[in-house]
Amino acid sequence: MLMDDVIMLYTNKDVPGRIFIITKYQLAEFNGSLNTFEKDYPNLFRCNRGFLVNLDNTINYDSKTRILSFIDGSTCEVSFRKNKELIKLMSKND
Q1: Per residue in 71-92, pLDDT tens?
Q2: Helices (H), 16-82
Q3: Which of 3, 5, 70, 74 could form a disulfide linkage to 23, CB 3.0–4.6 angstroms apart?
Q4: Integer Cα distance of 1 and 12 in angstroms
Q5: DSSP-derived 3-state class of residue 28
C-alpha cells in the first residue's frame, strides 16, 4: 500500500479493535490501533480521537466548522484542540 494513496484511517466505536482505511482506490478494514499507525507513519495527522488523515489528499479545510474535505469527497471533523495545529500545517503545505 502506498502512503500517497491513503486518504484516512478511522475507528468506529460500534466495531472496537478494527481500523477502517480509505484509499484512493478502496475501503478496507483490519484489526489494529490508530496509536500504532500514528507512531509508524508520522506523515499522518491525528485530527481527532478516531481519525488519522493524510493531509496530502485534502482539498479544503473550513476552520470555522472544523470540517476537513478530501479528494474523494469524504470529510471528517477536526477536534477543537487540533484546529490551530492543522491551520499551521495546511499553511506550510500551500
Answers
A1: 999 999 999 999 999 999 988 7
A2: 34-40
A3: 5
A4: 22
A5: strand
